[in-house]
Amino acid sequence: MSAARRITTGLAATGAAVAAATALTAGPAAAAPEAGTCEAGYVCMWEDAGYGGDKWVNWQPSGTGQIFEIGGWNGDNEISSALNRTGWAIVVYADDGAQGDSYCIHAYQPIQNFKEVGFNDDAESLMTQGSC
Ligand SMILES: [Ca+2]
Ligand SMILES: [Ca+2]
């Protein structure tokens, strides 16, 4: 004995409008950084100013003196903004292996545009430090 069942699919196809995120290069008087785009305890860095474009760094350091190597084809000499959501200072270096010219990002400091601190498209590696 088999009972015929009618299966109705009640899926309403709603047109989901996906708004394309436009990377705006904001001026100095820009709004507060989008801290939500980087998890607490992480250091995040993007190829564009204003935390836009590819996110080449998403690193959760666990102490000082640790080095993060930005990929040669994935971020070297491209970084233009950063969010430091750690309690450590993050030193960005112009060369691999924490070598060369450097710039120190304070604990919890956002860098909305590396151009403003003279280090745009320059970082190739990072290192944690107790303070700047
Ligand atoms: Ca860039
Ligand atoms: Ca590198």
Automatic annotation (TrEMBL):
Q: Which PROSITE patterns match?
A: TAT
UniProt keyword terms in alphabetical order: Signal
Q: Which domain of life is it from?
A: Bacteria
Q: Which residues form the signal peptide?
A: 1-31
The UniProt entry, under InterPro entries, shows: TAT_signal
What is the designated name of this protein? Peptidase inhibitor family I36
Identify the species of origin: Glycomyces endophyticus
